[in-house]
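debug: dumping io for the single-chain case to check the tokenizer round-trip. Nothing else runs in this session.
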Amino acid sequence: MGIRNVTELAHRKPRGVFLDRDGVINRALVRDGKPYPPATLEELEILPDAPSALSDLRDCGFLLLVVTNQPDVGRGLQQRDVVERMNQILVSALPLDEVLVCYHSGDEACDCRKPRPGLLLRAARDWNLDLGRSFMIGDRWRDIEAGHNAGCITILIDRNYREVAPACPPDVTVKSLREAADWILRSVGHGGDFEN
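debug: decoded output
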């Protein structure tokens, strides 16, 4: 590798893995085929494969950023401090760099509620991320469309929910966070760069 290529690699922006929260790193509560966030701290359960999958991604040099819609706060159905405590528990237990939350209800015209890419774009500015070399992992159509709208590589964890499919198909569909992490690690190869 020439000096020019080494210099170019040294100046590349970092990459991130964006993760939805409920159904990706902690268990979603599924009722009638539709996922819901845990309502209490007692219902918060980290999925068994999350610690090792996230550690492997961190070891490969990825920043790990949770981007989550929590509209029940905006609707008055959940207390913001309960959601923030859940997020603190996740950050304490897992190698996460930040949790970014949209608290708005679906009726509000914000730019941060997925499928809009506002949370991802804000994180990209704050962390100086290369979105084109970053990944979005989610279990719902909103996650995939937000990742697509931000210019990320998208991975759908298919939980067989009864809801609409993403308008923009994911780059890959998997069954678990472990499988998503393994796909990313294979995709970036030994040199740490995404191999198209």
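debug: round-trip ok. The mean pLDDT is 91.
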